[in-house]
Amino acid sequence: MAEVSARPDAPGEHVPDVGARASIGMMLLGALAMMSCCILPIALVSLGITGVFIGKLSALNQYHWYFLAFAAGSLIYGFRKAYRPLNSEACADGTCARPMNRTTLRSVMWFSLLIVVAAVWFQYNAASILNPF
After folding, report:
1. How many CB atoms lie within 10 A of CB 127?
2. Rounded distance, CA 133 to CA 131, Å?
3. Least CB-packed of 4, 10, 81, 120 within 10 Å?
């Protein structure tokens, strides 16, 4: 009988980069959380969508700083995963090749950063935008 290697880190096999996938999920979740407490209620009311759930979304505003801390932490982790140089000594045998496309990771990271910055900016400038006079 032939033996089957149960080690996922055997030479020639690629270990999936779970951290990159987790950072994408955390960045999107942080951006969604920032958007749900700050931008989404006003955008829905501006479009004419009303209901009880708008008040519930506005109630998330008290957790704004927690959402911002989570989004900032996940963006920092995402920047680290996306722009950290690979160790050439550890990658000599080709086992650390990333199956996660760094371009995708960087695109999601910059999109999430744009949403978070827009949410923070909108939080403090909403009054002057919605009531210009």
Report:
1. 8
2. 6
3. 4
